[in-house]
Sequence to fold (203 residues):
Amino acid sequence: IPDLNDKLLKRINHHKWPGNVRELQNFVRRYILLGEKEIDLPYLQTENLINSIDSNQYCYHAKSLDLENIDLKNKNLTGAVLTGAEIIQVDLSGANLEDADLNFTTITDSKFVKARMTNTRMVSAQISNSDFTGARINNSRASRSQISDSNLSGIRAAKSHFYEVSVRNSSFQGAALEESSFEDSRLDSVNLESAKLGKSVFR
Fold:
């Protein structure tokens, strides 16, 4: 019997198994006969997510789940709990992520263009090579996180709080950051051209 690796176990634990025991039995039989490479593993991670969102389940829990190559444009993920998730090449352009929890999340090569992320929490997150152009991140909090090689041009992050956040090789061109605070944060090779920083605090 092939061993169940950690990645597969994560997907099994997060799948809702709408077919109950019979679906689980069929999955186990296929796995024993065909092995991991022949099993449609993306079904276990994406169908659960897409079905939850399309059925208007407003708070989707995807703790420690790997999300890769998924189109979630304009989807409603209000209050989503994505703690510890790996988000790779996911398109969340125009998506609603208000009140979402992105703590300990890794985001790579993804799109959040014009996404709504008001009141979002992000602790110890790692963001790289991603596009947040025009995203609304008002009243949000980020701490002990790293942002690199990303485009945050035109974002709206008024009244947001950034603590121990490291940003490098990224652009905030034309961003609205009024009344935001940056405490013990570091900006390296960051483009702030035309950014609005009225009443923002840098400590």
